[in-house]
Amino acid sequence: MSNDTGTGRLLLLVPTTSYRIGAFLDAADRLGVDVAVGSNQRQVLEQYSEGRTVTLDFGDVERGAAQIELYSRDFPLAAIVGVDDETTLIAAMASKTLGLPHNAPESVAATGNKHSFRTRLANSGLPAPRFTLVPVGDDPDRAARDSFYPAVLKPLALSASRGVIRADNPAQFASAFRRIAAILEDAGSRGDAARHILVEEYVPGTEVALEGLLDDGHLTVLALFDKPDPLEGPYFEETIYLTPSRLPADVQAAVAATVTHAVAVLGLREGPIHAELRINDKGVWIIEVAARSIGGLCSGALHFGPAGRLEDLILQHALGLSVPSVEPDRPATGVMMIPTPAAGVLCKVAGIEAAGAVAGIDDVTISIATGETLVPVPEGNRYLGFVFASGETPASVETALRAAHDELEFTIKPG
To answer: E strands, 33-123, where?
Structure first.
């Protein structure tokens, strides 16, 4: 690619399992940016690609950062962007070493460990649930007797609701504890994340997600998503996101203020953030903050007219370019992460054309190929697919998404 911006090379850190690489490469192409991809598996054409790809150890953060430093000696870097949870800390550490714009590694690390995150926010003055850390080796029945209820048990570092389970009584707690321990073993978790389970007080209320961009600590809210489906457990599979939010203006302002306060306490100052919050009569509660943008293909629901897509804004900020004012170019948009209806082998998907023909639907993407195995949450962490819609109001977008989903039929062979 050409380097019309004169900014030097941008390194994108992307796990091979990520949905995000295409959107970021398209953004780099639109901006005329000289880009390379760092991944955790060697690419077939790496030896022929003139430094356009580099293999990195994402499992060892310090080693991965050192590999980036070595790469930069031959290919000087202007910016490093970690696209997913797995890569944000390596990006921060390497950027610090190379003197590039970055968040403090310790701040990024706090967002990537749910117990560290809760500990950092515990004395912030923000509403916060009770929480405790339980070793995986503890007796589940004893831990259940000592717990508060209702509770939500969580792995420290897994994403996409994997291993997150609500328990309303000791029997459910013990069952969830054993199940999460098995998930951690299957996921190959390392270090503290493999040895502990976080137990939090369940926070009831309306759930929203905020997409933002930090510039020297200043938060620009890019979108506030409503989640119209109740997420009450026992599992917490994401489904529909709608923007703009239908919440009153004062509540939306309180959400933005809460996120601003939380990222300041965490020490985050640069780049994209994705926050999950719940709202009830006691206030706005931070559930999670990630030092990266929205996951899956969900960024496809965000359109900013001449400013481009979400990935354009992220890359412009990372490279120190002027980020244009961000105003959505559509009245309302939304995305449905297609729920996984059952475990088994996906044999057939019918109704895609009919779903795409529903008024207001922009695209239907099935992200798991036929013949592959479906694993629902809490064990699974892959979306079956994504449906995108736009319209005059969030209500019309929600109606379109639900109607399109009703047209889809999945044939799944148990196994």
So the answer is: 34-39, 53-55, 77-82
